[in-house]
Design a protein that fits this description.
Elements (H helix, E strand, L loop, with lengths): L2 H5 L2 H30 L13 H18 L3 E11 L8 E10 L6 H14 L3 E2 L10 E5 L2 E7 L6 E7 L16 E2 L1 H4 L2
Antiparallel strand pairs: 1-2, 1-7, 2-6, 3-4, 4-5, 5-6
Length: about 190
């Protein structure tokens, strides 16, 4: 059988079409994924202006101190951690404070949270989408810092405030001993 006849046979035509279709699919996938990577922007770019450990801590400790005072938070306790933004322990890192404080009864908490929100807006914080899984909670942002507060699920007379800084600490802390550090006294300064 001549070669031209073999190439025009139905199985050969299907094989050539399948090879072209696979090549086209792979080529389009490469272009689409490359374009998708470019759309992610600053979240995956290397950190242009890294923060030192002290700067990362100050970035969240200052707002925690300000909010505790402006919001008139009672019986405050707070812990600090430098946490990874990528996975369990790789850089970059962000400072994080978990702050706990007293809240009035269940029925008075929404009004109390409103007063905290008003105090934060007066200090230049912008309200963002409410947090998932925490009905009645609030989220605020300012200068790259995010604050989330909500009623504590385990203790009805306490609330939790989570304060997160920017992912700009590039020092490698993978070999450091880690754990939450009590910063309650630093909030009173």
């Amino acid at each position: 059988m001549p070669a031209v006849t073999v190439l025009r046979s139905r199985p050969a035509t299907l094989l050539i079409a399948a090879a072209l279709l696979v090549s086209l699919t792979l080529g389009l996938s490469f272009v689409a994924l490359h374009h998708f990577r470019d759309l992610r922007g600053a979240a995956v770019d290397p950190v242009a202006q890294p923060l030192s450990d002290d700067q990362a801590r100050a970035q969240v400790l200052g707002p925690a101190r300000q909010i505790a005072g402006a919001g008139k938070l009672a019986n405050v306790s707070a812990s600090y951690l430098l946490m990874s933004c990528t996975n369990a322990d790789a850089p970059p890192y962000q400072g994080a404070i978990y702050l706990n404080f007293d809240v009035p009864g269940v029925l008075q908490t929404p009004k109390y949270f409103d007063s905290i929100a008003t105090a934060m807006r007066n200090e230049g914080w912008a309200e963002a989408m409410p947090p998932n899984r925490h009905p009645g909670g609030r989220t605020f942002t300012r200068d790259g810092v995010t604050v989330i507060y909500f009623r504590n699920d385990d203790t009805s007379n306490r609330a939790t405030m989570q304060i997160y800084g920017e992912c700009r600490n590039t020092t490698d802390h993978r070999r450091d001993a880690t754990g939450w550090v009590d910063v309650t006294a630093a909030l009173r300064r």
